[in-house]
Design brief:
This protein is of the alpha/beta class. The chain contains 14 helices and 14 strands. Strand 13 and strand 14 (351-357) form a beta hairpin. It binds arginine.
Length: 406
């Protein structure tokens, strides 16, 4: 009996060649697994047909959009996760989700291996393989692209020689990875970090394909319950629906672009271009509501732990004890993060928070105001400041260097 392998199949050139290669070179029966994680304009019927044409014995298509939103984006948003302070982990969030389905389908089909189409230079191979180790330490993982030593041109020739259906796409010069949390664009001219990204790399920011072509400012009210986005302009919506809607509203104003040089896990600095309108909008709104509702020490500790959470996810350690422990901390902080945040998008690519309100706010008007409603005891402040500064006063008298000492 032939061994079976479950391949994460995108329908692109590399994974189509991989189906054929795994079958012919490695002697596997290949099951192609394609996930809908919210990538735009994807025809899963065409993808399935391509997999079968390339030699797959079976194709599994899973609509994983709700799962991506609820089980991966939601915890990441609770942690305001931005790698190196900028990147909302678009690809890093979908990889553990894909891995979990690869392992599930491998069990269903009694497959001994899983496979992915990543190269040896990126983070995604790390995420796939460390994720797989975490969920099933005994499964074999095959990375055909890392093994076969073919250039892109070689792969095209291979596909033609073997009559594989390959997608004739205008995107070929760029490597694009997309899901509901954003879109990552690499390669081509973008590899020169000095060159401004050409307008045609973008798909849902700017005025290309935009629903709202006006350059007027637009206001949106985002409601949160326990840290999770729950409504838009007062209408209750699922997290997934809110993300989809905000990608259009904020994206059509041009909000959500990121151009950065990123430090990959494998030691390479790479120029990355992203567009993540909903992700950046929701993180900004969520951070704002936390400033309003979280007690000072909790807020400060959370701000210290957030970059660590982002780093773990980026490094492919979604399934790890530290990520899970940090997750528990983040969840515990969200109990009172309930309220509404008003954002303004445009004119131009700007997007910002312009107001917030919450029944759970720790903001107390009577304490904050300078008007007559002031309930703050000014005499208490005098004593507090004296005690707070006491140690500094002693130091100043005994040790502080003055100009005479220099
Ligand atoms: N640099 C980003 C990351 O590591 C994006 C990766 C995009 N992947 C791709 N196959 N184009 O998360």
């Amino acid at each position: 009996m032939r061994n079976k392998v479950v391949l994460a199949y995108s329908g692109g050139l590399d994974t189509s060649v991989a189906v054929h290669w795994l079958k012919e070179t490695k002697g596997y029966d290949v099951i192609a697994l394609s996930l809908d994680v919210g990538q735009a304009d994807t025809d899963f019927d065409a993808i399935s047909e391509r997999a079968i044409k390339a030699g797959a014995v079976d194709v599994v298509v899973v609509d994983a959009k709700e799962e991506m939103a609820n089980d991966y984006v939601r915890p990441s948003l609770a942690a305001n996760a931005l790698y190196e302070g900028k990147y909302p982990l678009v690809s890093a969030l979908s990889r553990p989700l894909i891995v979990s389905h690869l392992i599930k389908v491998a069990k269903q089909f009694s497959a001994s291996a899983i496979a992915h189409g990543c190269t040896g230079k990126g983070n995604d191979q790390v995420r796939f393989e460390v994720g797989a180790i975490a969920l099933d330490p005994d499964i074999d993982v095959i990375a055909p692209v890392r093994e076969w030593n073919m250039t892109r041109e070689d792969s095209i020739v291979y596909a033609k020689e073997n009559n594989l259906l390959i997608q004739a796409s205008k995107d070929r010069i760029y490597s694009i990875d997309e899901n509901l949390w954003g879109r990552a664009i690499e390669c081509g001219i973008l590899e020169d970090p000095w060159i401004k990204p050409p307008e045609d790399v973008f798909s849902y920011t700017g005025l290309l394909g935009a629903e709202d072509k006006s350059q007027e400012a637009r206001e949106v009210i985002i409601g949160f319950e326990h840290g999770v986005p729950s409504s838009l302009d007062g209408t209750k919506m699922s997290l997934l629906a809110i993300i989809n809607r905000l990608n259009i509203i904020a994206g059509s104003c041009g909000f959500g672009r990121i151009d950065m040089v990123e430090s990959r896990r494998v030691g390479i600095k790479s120029r990355e271009v992203y567009e993540c309108p909903a992700a950046l909008a929701l993180i900004a709104a969520h951070q704002d509501l936390e400033s309003f509702t979280l007690e000072r020490d909790v807020l400060h500790e959370k701000l210290r732990l957030e970059p660590r959470f982002a780093e773990l996810v980026y490094d492919g350690l979604w399934f790890s004890p530290l990520r899970e422990a940090l997750n528990a901390f983040m969840s515990a902080t969200q109990e009172y993060v309930t309220g509404e945040v008003k954002m303004q998008f445009g004119p131009g690519p700007a997007g910002k928070v312009i107001g917030r309100r919450s029944d759970k706010a720790l903001y107390d008007y009577n304490l904050a105001t300078y008007d007559e409603a002031d309930s703050f005891n000014h005499e208490d402040a005098e004593g507090f400041v004296r005690v707070f500064g006491l140690g500094i006063a002693t130091w100043a008298r005994r040790q502080r260097k003055t100009d005479n000492d220099k």
